[in-house]
Write a structure and sequence with these properties.
The protein has 324 residues and is α+β, with helices and mostly antiparallel strands. 31% of the residues lie in helices and 29% in strands. Strands 12, 13, 14, 15, 16 and 17 form a 6-stranded antiparallel β-sheet that branches.
């Protein structure tokens, strides 16, 4: 039986969702193949959460000691959304320790977590994206200057982050400064991006035994103005339709683009690509390299529509990571 460390938590606004993802993975893991150990990582505090005790992790070799024996891990299941699990930091640590993990590597994680850099690379691949500008905290650009390049409405969002934390939709020029302040509260870099009207579609992709597999395309319908943090995680504020009610041609094109990006960006594990469908044209929004795995999350629903249980998905991710 393999010892699997499920890392969750992290240092971002996605901490609570990450812990829920980690606990769901712990619950769903095939106990005949894997012995799960849920490890909460939050800043300098790394602890293994067992039923009746909390055991600090030895960061020198990523081990824990319990019942007089030292537990070493055969693989890491990465369920940390945001930093340090989605931006390459934790991946570099495990690479140095030669411990396999279920998510993208250092380079891909760092690139895709930075929305602006990822947009530049995806555009170079010929992928269509909304017009945007990239701002840094030490820059001073007025609303007038920003809106001389972009047309309202716009989205203002932290350049590095997820779960729609710190995002605003701005319809009026006078609201732009407050939106920038909100986004800069979460990150030192901010993206201001033109709003593209249309339907929000998303596609999960996974690599299994050398084959890149696209899950059924899903449509996200938010009952709020856009798919923000509340809509994502509060019951009744959004609906995910799996599979999406689109033509086979549209679904196939979404899957094709997603598999293309998965390969070109050298992704690993399960990854989710988000788009706006405007007419027959796809506008790529962003990639989630550690997507949510809670009971309410989209990827488990996609996997279910494909024919995999959550347990099967977790098994395939671990087996792919360790090379089985």
């Amino acid at each position: 039986m393999l010892n699997i460390a499920i890392i969750a938590g992290g240092d971002s606004g996605e901490y609570e969702i990450s812990m829920k993802s980690g606990r769901q993975v712990e619950l769903q893991l095939d106990k005949e193949k894997f012995q799960p150990y849920l490890i909460e990582i939050r800043k300098e505090n790394w602890n293994c959460l067992l039923k009746d005790e909390i055991i600090p992790v030895d960061k020198n070799d990523f081990t824990v000691q319990t019942d007089g024996k030292r537990i070493r891990f055969d693989a890491v299941f990465n369920a940390i959304h945001g930093t340090p699990g989605e931006n390459g930091k934790i991946q570099g640590y495990f690479d140095m320790l030669d411990i396999p993990y279920t998510s993208c590597d250092v380079t891909t994680s760092a690139l895709t977590f930075n929305k602006s850099f990822c947009k530049n690379v995806a555009t170079a691949f010929g992928i269509t994206m909304a017009k945007s500008i990239h701002l840094f905290r030490n820059e001073t650009k007025s609303a007038q200057h920003i809106l001389s390049d972009l047309s309202l409405p716009v989205f203002v969002k932290p350049n590095n982050g997820g779960s729609s934390v710190g995002i605003s939709k701005v319809n009026r020029k006078q609201d732009l400064e407050n939106a920038l302040h909100k986004a800069f509260h979460e990150d030192d870099e901010v993206i201001v991006e033109e709003f593209i009207p249309g339907r929000e579609l998303t596609c999960g992709v996974v690599k299994c035994k050398g084959q890149i597999i696209a899950f059924p395309v899903t449509e996200i319908i938010s009952r709020k103005e856009y798919f923000d943090y509340e809509a994502k995680y509060q019951d009744g504020l959004s609906e995910e339709i799996v599979p999406a009610n689109v033509s086979s041609e549209i679904a196939g094109e979404c899957q094709r683009i997603s598999k293309f990006l998965f390969a070109k960006l050298n992704c690993r594990g399960v990854v989710r690509f988000d788009y706006i469908l405007n007419g027959d044209n796809f506008y790529f929004l962003e990639v989630n390299t550690v997507p949510g795995l809670t009971a309410q999350s989209i990827v488990p629903k996609m996997a279910g529509a494909y024919g995999w249980t959550m347990t099967e998905l977790c098994t395939r991710l671990i087996e792919e990571a360790i090379g089985h």
